[in-house]
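Q: What residues go here?
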């Protein structure tokens, strides 16, 4: 059984994961409107992944005798200036999400809720992977610079991008 404090904290994370999904959906749309098919495909996939992250929390809370809540979501930005800026925003957001996951881990330890602590380890690994992926992409974008031909190649390349880390979760959802 979850404590009320743990349940509330996990419900807050449901909102954060749902908002992540919305942010990446807005990025997918912006990239698609620029004709950047590869990048928009990547963002649509990221958006779907975040929904899976949200659902995983959702199921877990109910499984442990709590009540998962669907909350109101903030409206994400719809324009991103440049591809570099957009991926910079993505990295910042992932760093923020990692902090929120760490905070949940902290609460689970304080409460000696080892089941939740164990459940959260998947997210800890996932965040390492997502941050690494965003950094890899930003490095590539910095290499390309302003050249249009580079952006064209990058848009093709991103379709096959696969960043494995030492702690890659075995599945994405
Ligand atoms: Fe949910 O992993 Fe990104 O934010």
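A:
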């Amino acid at each position: 059984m979850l404590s009320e404090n743990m349940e509330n904290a996990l419900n807050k994370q449901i909102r954060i994961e749902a908002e992540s999904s919305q942010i990446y959906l807005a990025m997918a749309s912006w990239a698609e409107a620029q004709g950047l098919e590869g990048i928009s495909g990547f963002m649509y996939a990221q958006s779907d992944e975040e929904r899976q992250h949200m659902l995983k929390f959702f199921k877990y809370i109910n499984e442990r005798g709590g009540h998962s809540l669907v909350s109101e979501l903030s409206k994400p930005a719809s324009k991103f200036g440049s591809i570099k800026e957009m991926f910079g925003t993505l990295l910042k957001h992932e760093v923020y999400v990692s902090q929120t996951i760490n905070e949940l881990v902290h609460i689970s330890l304080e409460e000696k809720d080892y089941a939740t602590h164990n459940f959260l380890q998947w997210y800890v690994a996932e965040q390492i992977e997502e941050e690494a992926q965003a950094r890899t992409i930003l490095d590539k974008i910095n290499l390309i610079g302003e050249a249009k031909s580079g952006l064209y190649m990058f848009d093709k390349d991103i379709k096959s991008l696969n960043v494995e880390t030492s702690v890659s979760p075995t599945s994405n959802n």
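A: Context that may help when evaluating the design: The chain has a mean pLDDT of 93. The chain has one domain: 4-71+80-159.
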